[in-house]
TrEMBL record:
Gene that produces this protein: ELP1
TM segment ranges: 251-276
Name of protein: Ig-like domain-containing protein
Stretches for region Disordered: 293-343
Entry superkingdom: Eukaryota
Localization: Membrane
Organism name: Esox lucius
InterPro entries reported for this sequence: BTN3A2-like_Ig-C, Ig-like_dom, Ig-like_dom_sf, Ig-like_fold, Ig_sub, Ig_V-set, IgSF_BTN/MOG
Keywords annotated in UniProt: Disulfide bond, Glycoprotein, Immunoglobulin domain, Membrane, Signal, Transmembrane, Transmembrane helix
Gene Ontology BP terms: regulation of cytokine production; regulation of leukocyte cell-cell adhesion; regulation of T cell activation; T cell receptor signaling pathway
GO cellular component terms listed in the entry, alphabetical order: external side of plasma membrane
Pfam families hit by this protein: C2-set_3, V-set
Length: 343
């Protein structure tokens, strides 16, 4: 007897599980829906059983935000919209896909997304004869705008691009890619700032070279919500520098700079040589010349001091043998005054 009761209980439990498994349910989306300010977004919601969708044309559908007053975001019944009690912030921005309702699609389309639209939305079908009348969908407004990409310069290597994205909720990561999806090295670290509201601004630069199609992409990832924004830019071929001309210019400037350097060195040698010659350090005019040329007051120095004349002759012999004269033996002649100065 007891075994029979156990069998009955198991059978009833199995039937209830099977019935619940085949019950019509309102199904939303577990992952958050992410949008940017100004975007159009779809909040998914479907009527279905475990095996198929269910016609929702004859059902009433309410989209609500329970944290607002009034809470109505969009209201549909008897095959038409009734939005008299709709929250004013959503006026003219909501719609259902009426042509898809026969397939169980009761998703909400929200246009021109605002920062204030972020929150939890309830998809509610009150006329559904089922305990599973509601589903929750979360909307995250991920940024004020998509990345803005522009050309900011041209150098000898290539074209310099700038990328900036503002109003991001979560800390962003920026990468540059070419048309093949290869990551390009950025020109220095990415700049990240926060405003008074705690939202992020990210900015970065990259220098790109000519490719097959000259298309480049700036991607901004918010890792915490797995949300990526991207903007492509096409750089016209004529914007890139001529590498052959750059090589020629570099060669020309290199030789020009080298010529100027050697010219400066040569000029410096000439000036130093002239100064040294004037100081009697390169060309020596020795006392021996006194025996041959000048007279002072009509009297020869040889007659005035025979011993000095003899020393001069000896010194002259030494010089003729290749011996360097002493600095005290040198004179510099002043041709204008016909006189000499002894150093």
């Amino acid at each position: 007897m007891e075994d029979n009761w156990m069998q009955v209980i198991c059978l009833l439990t199995l039937l209830s599980v099977c019935r619940a498994h085949d019950e019509v349910q309102v199904v939303g989306q577990a992952e958050p829906v992410v949008a940017n300010v100004g975007d159009d977004v779809i909040l998914p919601c479907t009527l279905r059983t475990s095996s198929s969708t269910v016609n929702a044309v004859e059902e009433s559908v309410e989209w609500q935000r329970l944290d607002l007053q009034p809470k109505e975001v969009h209201f549909f019944r008897t095959r038409d919209d009734y939005n008299d009690d709709q929250n004013p912030s959503y006026r003219g921005r909501t719609a259902l896909f009426k042509g898809e309702m026969k397939n169980g699609n009761v998703s909400l389309k929200l246009t021109r997304v605002k920062l204030s639209d972020a929150g939890n939305y309830t998809c509610f079908v009150p006329t559904l004869k089922s305990p599973f009348q509601k589903a929750m969908v979360q909307l995250i407004v991920g940024g004020v705008s998509r990345p803005d990409v522009s050309i900011v310069g041209i150098d000898a290597i290539g074209v310099v691009l700038d990328c900036e994205a503002r109003g991001l909720i979560y800390r962003p990561e920026m990468t540059w890619r070419d048309s093949d999806g290869n990551i390009l090295p950025a020109d220095g670290p990415t700049e990240i700032e926060t405003d008074s509201a705690g939202r992020y601004t990210v900015r970065g630069h990259v220098t790109v070279q000519r490719t097959d199609n000259n298309t480049f992409t700036c991607r901004v990832l918010q890792q915490q919500i797995n949300h990526t924004m991207k903007t492509e830019i096409h750089v016209k071929d004529r914007m890139f520098p001529d590498t052959s001309q750059s090589w020629w210019n570099g060669w020309w400037w290199g030789w020009g700079f080298g010529g100027l350097t050697w010219g400066f060195i040569f000029g410096l040698i000439v000036v130093v040589r002239y100064i040294l010659k004037r100081k009697c350090l390169l060309t020596w005019v020795c006392q021996r010349g006194l025996n041959e040329n000048p007279q002072t007051n009509g009297t020869s120095e040889r007659n005035e001091n025979p011993q000095e004349n003899q020393n001069s002759l000896l010194n002259g012999n030494e010089r003729s043998n290749g011996t360097m004269p002493h600095a005290d033996d040198c004179v510099v002649w002043d041709t204008d005054s016909s006189s000499s100065s002894v150093f």
